[in-house]
């Protein structure tokens, strides 16, 4: 009997799925093209990471460094004009569960960013969260445009390994704090829609 | 009765799906490994983007700049030998719906590329389309090898946000025009196979 | 009759699928969130690629070159301190089916890497396998952290084209050999979970 009930539920659920998909297929045209219903998120994670930019004086504490810069700029200081356009940094930043730089790190954010707009502050990020705590073991890799001055901006999850094998989703990033050209802290709110 | 009909259709569709998948599973070996039938594209988009490379004289109009170069080269001009091997550029290029540089932009193509072959012109691209028009709001991020001299080359869609949340697919890129080392225009024909 | 049998098999398989998914949905909480059962791999591939790093003396044979470096370092030699932190290289490396540098290449590994940790050797990789042999035509793009000193490390497959259209999965990378700062060979064991 239990099995039979399951069977009925299955059929109803399946009918709903197929019918709704079909409807969307049929109405698909240039202006109405969303095909699959968005699955319920399977995981939500919030982390902070902390970037201390090398500025010529903080070699000991810096967690990132410029490795590329446009003509006429140098690798010690962020380019003074054009909103750092063309400055590229490599980083290995601690990840914490709260906004305290001194909290025990649960992993490292490793990757690169570069400033890519002349007329405003905007960047492009490619990086990986390497998590190695009791709660999470694995990596999540992100990539995409980061319009810094926008309060909340979405960046794509492009890959994952370990606990996050083939995860898909987005990260909503916000600048939680910054201190001139020396420090910034990003809050990364990760929503995954496919978890294995 | 309507429900019953739906149920039948569902069963037939489902049988087809499972049977065809099963067959492919069973015949899966080293030489016959395509597992899932390719879904029908859910979206096709064509855009152009325009890259004006800084060459020491066009600071005002340039939309990209060298930020890295190999030993012996400089950041003002593309490396003269080895097909620009090792030159890395950051860009913020206007996206248009047609091949006219002066058409109203519908977004920005932001990212980086580098020349990565000594014996021919070839590049590697990582970039994001940031679309912000009445038709499209969101981002699509791409990555992959770009063998420039091939007429049509495919680059992977690796992520998406907003209207393009978790989109999957490819972009077929072709060089629509170029002027020496100062300007190129790419036509990007995007085919998405998963849309939400 | 055959059809009816198929139908029964379908129902059983489907019930199993939905019931197991449902159970996982229901029990999903902070500590038990794996939602989908991991599909069986659809493809396993093993390749080797060979990186010959430019060191000022091997311009003829080098397959990679530094294009970025931190303040105070140069582009001829890997940075002597801080475990090459901040050194960024672009590469176009031959791919072989075995660990012999002189075997006929089946494609090229093209992309970039940078060293991103001060206190140990660790890198971040973004690259594409461009395969063009009788067995494989297409590209696979990878991205993620590469903790070099770990024997086996997983990197995400982030995209694919051609034979590998929209492939998903991971690559388990191991350093098969290295010679100082001039040569390394990586073994890349690719497991794909979605093939079209």
Automatic annotation (TrEMBL), chains A, B, C:
Q: Which compartment or compartments is the protein found in?
A: Secreted, Extracellular space, Apoplast
Q: Which domain of life is it from?
A: Eukaryota
Q: Which Pfam families match?
A: Dirigent
Q: One biological-process term from Gene Ontology?
A: phenylpropanoid biosynthetic process
Question: Which InterPro entries does the record associate with it?
Answer: Allene_oxi_cyc_Dirigent, Dirigent
Would you tell me the Gene Ontology cellular component terms?
apoplast
Transmembrane regions: none
Please state the span of the N-terminal signal peptide per the UniProt entry.
Answer: 1-30
State whether keyword Signal applies: yes
Ordered alphabetically, the record's keywords are: Apoplast, Secreted, Signal
- Record-stated family: Belongs to the plant dirigent protein family.
Function in brief = Dirigent proteins impart stereoselectivity on the phenoxy radical-coupling reaction, yielding optically active lignans from two molecules of coniferyl alcohol in the biosynthesis of lignans, flavonolignans, and alkaloids and thus plays a central role in plant secondary metabolism.
- State how it assembles: Homodimer.
Protein's name according to its UniProt entry:
Dirigent protein
What is the scientific name of the source organism?
A: Picea engelmannii x Picea glauca (Hybrid white spruce)
């Amino acid at each position: 009997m239990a099995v039979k009930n399951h069977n009925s539920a299955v059929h109803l659920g399946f009918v709903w799925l197929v019918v709704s998909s079909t409807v969307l297929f049929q109405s698909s045209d240039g202006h109405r093209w969303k095909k699959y219903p968005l699955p319920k998120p399977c995981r939500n994670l919030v982390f902070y990471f902390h970037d201390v930019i090398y500025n010529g004086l903080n070699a000991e504490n810096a967690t990132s460094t410029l490795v590329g810069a446009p003509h006429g700029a140098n690798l010690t200081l962020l380019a003074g004009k054009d909103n750092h356009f063309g400055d590229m940094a490599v980083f290995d930043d601690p990840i914490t569960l709260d906004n305290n730089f001194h909290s025990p790190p649960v992993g490292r954010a490793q990757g690169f960013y570069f400033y890519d707009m002349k007329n405003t502050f905007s960047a492009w990020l490619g990086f990986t969260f390497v998590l190695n705590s009791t709660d999470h073991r694995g990596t999540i890799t992100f990539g995409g445009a980061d319009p810094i001055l926008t309060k909340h901006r979405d960046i794509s999850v492009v890959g994952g390994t370990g606990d996050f094998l083939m995860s898909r989703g987005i990260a909503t990033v916000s600048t939680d704090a910054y201190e001139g050209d020396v420090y910034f802290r990003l809050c990364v709110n990760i929503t995954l829609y496919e978890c294995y």
